[in-house]
Amino acid sequence: MQSPFAYSIHIPPAIAPDQRYPVIFALHGIGYSEQDILSVVADLEEEFILIAVRGHLSYNQGYAYYTLKEYGKPDRDTFDESLEMLQVFMEYATNKYPVSADNRYLLGFSQGAILSMSLALLLGNSIKGIVAMNGYIPAFVKDEFEVKSIDQLSIFLSDGEFDDIFPVSIGKENYVYLNSRAKSVCYKTYPAGHEICEENGRDIVAWLRNDSAHLQQRSKSIYG
Questions:
Q1: Is the pLDDT of residue 92 over 90?
Q2: Mean pLDDT score, 94-105
Q3: Domains of the chain (ranges, CATH numbers)
């Protein structure tokens, strides 16, 4: 099986034989690349398998996963195609690398956040959690897709207080929608625009480290 996307991967250097590791699938924003989003979680490289997925479409000096009719209105054909390709890619990577299938996270900024939240609703509790920064859930995902239960998902949402593309009101809508469905939702805003500020990055790393550690502790208590 071949990967439908180009990607960058970092596997913990002290990997143990026959051991499975938590994984973060990182999705960049439109016009960016996989290296941009990979840098956000670089501090977790000894604890997680980090996989940054490059969008398969060219956009300005970077890449995209789908095209836009205008901001906030994805082209449905390329959006749906990207969702299908990402699901295939996640299974490809889970089978190819020493990934713990019970400890898979999606992380995305802007277009990557939109896809992360949409994928979470499609995949349900087969993933552990998501980090979504400065994005939204398209109405057609909520209304037309076969949304699965996410009552075991942990979610970290964040927005910039001065984001002129996706204002904080959209982030609050994300929180209300997901908080009524997910296991837990942490929502924070930062004094920033449409970007990932340093404080946001530090909080993301701390949240992922803490959430994954809780799962591993529960697994040890059950199976150890």
A1: yes
A2: 96
A3: 7-12+19-223 (3.40.50.1820)
Give the helix ranges, DSSP H, for 124-197: 139-144, 168-179
**pLDDT at residue 224, rounded to an integer:** 41
Three-state SS at 100: strand
- Across the chain, mean pLDDT equals 93
pLDDT (average), residues 48-58: 97
**CA-to-CA distance for 48 and 129, rounded, in angstroms?**
14
Q: Are 34 and 54 in contact (CB under 8 A)?
A: yes
Spell out a b/e string for 20-39, using b for 16 or more CB atoms within 10 Å of the CB, else e: ebbbbbbbbbbbbbbebbbe
What is the spatial distance between Cα 186 and Cα 169, in angstroms, rounded to a whole number? Answer: 16
Q: Is the four-CA dihedral 5, 144, 23, 64 of positive or negative sign? A: positive
Q: How far apart are CA 27 and CA 7, in angstroms?
A: 10
Q: Tell me which residue of 19, 15, 18, 9 sits closest to 46, measured CA to CA.
A: 15
Question: Does 222 score more than 50 pLDDT?
Answer: no
Report yes or no: 148 and 125 within 8 Å, Cβ to Cβ. Answer: yes
Amino acid at the residue 60: N
Beta strands in 71-210 (DSSP E): 73-74, 99-109, 129-133, 154-160, 184-190
What mean pLDDT do residues 121-128 have? 97
Q: What is the DSSP string of 38-49?
A: HGGGGGGTTTSE
